[in-house]
Amino acid sequence: MPVSSTLAPFGTSIFAEMTGLAMRHQAINLSQGFPDFDGPDFLKVAAVAAIRAGHNQYARSFGVPALNAAIARDFTTTGGYTITDPDTHITITSGCTEALPATILGLINPGDEVILIEPFYDSYPACIALARATPRVLTLRPDKSGTFALDPAELEAAFNTRTRAILLNTPHNPTGKVFSQAELSHISSLCIKHNVLCIVDEVYEKLVYSPALPHLHIASFPGMAERTITLSSLGKSFSVTGWKIGWAIAPPHLTAGVRAAHQFLTFATSTPMQHAAAHALASPDGAAYLKSLIAQYAASRDQLAAALTHAGFIPHRTDGTYFIMADASPVISRLAARPGLGHIQDDITLCRWMTEHLKVAAIPPTAFYINKAHGRHFVRFAFCKKPETLAAAAERLNMLCS
Ligand code: PMP
Ligand code: GLN
Predict the structure, then answer these.
(1) How many CA atoms lie within 13 Å of 348's alpha carbon, on the beta-carbon side?
(2) What is the pTM of this model?
């Protein structure tokens, strides 16, 4: 029994599993969310320059000063509160993936309850388990307009005297939901009423497509600055998911908890990449790149949504992130009725079959649910791919219609 009893129930991450399966079957990989195109040249030049300039030893544990300062400025100019001292409010981590356990292990006690919203990013329940805390699960369900939403009464009922934190993700992976002003106000008022921390994962903060639904930092809502830990990272915004530069923004009393764990998780993060990341956030090159990326992704979203609709899926509306959550019920029923395909009954059997036979890989979202029944008729597709990749996938998905 080599795997610890805490982690054994979580198995292998669905992202590794589906990318592995896609590679084995030479399928177009719309499963794991990473671009199939390279990050911008100006960033690569900045990273090489940082290495050549000798930024190659351990960084300051909580980040190189230029990056802490660049994040503070970016947070403030995008609607966050003013950070007067980036060195006491910001901790640089190895991707948001590290910011999550640093925050949860550093601030949550064994036995505490953490409100977890499903579908969730797969590492959340594992981090809660590592902290010996208990998840209290709420489900996002599509409303009449197809937008995923929480039931306000269920949300209120989830808060109790044992609640230490709510773990929020906006823009939301996998549904593409961007939480509205009204939804964030409701969550804020409950956090304040019950004296609860808000851990908010904003890794897709730059990837929003609907002017009516901008990304909002919940940390800047009244009464929230002192109880919010805002997590984010560079990878999605600048198409460098492999760089693993992330961060946690919080007032000093909460930053103390994040750093208490961070010093023993990784101590510090790649020094030259932090210098390049500072350049991405602070330079006009970075702003211009983001503008073009958002336009590209808006077109890719529409291209993929049209292909999915044509193939018989019902795509839900994506206002942010680079994912589409699609209702696969019509496709599942149609395939299951074909001779020899009666075993296709849910997201897992469908995604496996699509990868092996259609040569298009996608994510079965039950991996993101504790209540598996809520997720078994969905499939998540990533559109952070070249237009020609999406066109090739569309051609293969068309075979579902024949
Ligand atoms: N949170 C969410 C919601 C994500 O989709 C991802 C993507 N991997 C992460 C956190 C991890 O971010 P990073 O790649 O910066 O570690
Ligand atoms: N965030 C990416 C996704 O949701 C992948 C993350 C990972 O591979 N761990 O697809």
Answers:
(1) 8
(2) 0.97
pLDDT (tens digit per residue) in 300-335: 999 999 999 999 999 999 999 999 999 999 999 999
* pLDDT tens by residue, 245-264: 999 999 999 999 999 999 99
**Among 203, 206, 240, 380, which residue has the most ligand 1 atoms within 8 Å of its CB, making it the best to mutate?**
203
Q: In this prediction, what percent of the chain has a pLDDT beyond 90?
A: 98
Coarse DSSP helix, strand, coil percentages of the chain, rounded to the nearest 5 percent: 45, 15, 35
State which ligand 1 atom lies nearest to the alpha carbon of 246: 15
- Asked, as a colleague might, if the bond just before 222 is cis with ω within 30 of 0, I would say no
Distances (CA, A) of 113 to 154, 239, 251: 15, 35, 22
Nearest ligand to residue 233 Cα: 1
With a Cβ cut-off of 6 Å, ligand 2 is lined by 13, 15, 32-33, 173
Give the residue, out of 103, 124, 167, 173, with the most ligand 1 atoms within 8 A of its beta carbon, to mutate for a pocket test. 173
How many CA atoms within 13 Å lie on the side-chain side of 353? Answer: 19
Would the CB of 96 count as within 6 Å of ligand 1? yes
8-39+287-401 CATH, one of 3.90.1150.10, 3.20.20.370, 3.30.70.270, 2.70.150.10: 3.90.1150.10
Ligand 1 centroid distance, CA of 175 (Å):
14
Nearest CA to ligand 2 atom 2: 33
Name which residue sits closest to atom 5 of ligand 1, judged by CA: 173
Quick one: pLDDT band at residue 377, thresholds 50, 70, 90?
A: very high
Model pLDDT, residue 324: 98
Phi, psi values for residue 134, rounded to 5° = -120, 130
For domain 57-283, give its CATH number from 1.10.4030.10, 3.40.640.10, 3.90.640.10, 3.40.1050.10: 3.40.640.10
Which atom of ligand 2 is found nearest the CA of 174? Answer: 4
CA distance linking residue 334 with residue 312, whole number of Å = 9
Between the CA of 349 and the centroid of ligand 1 the distance, in Å, is 26
**Delimiting residues of CATH 3.40.640.10 domain(s) in the chain:** 57-283
CA of 160 to the centre of ligand 2 (A): 32
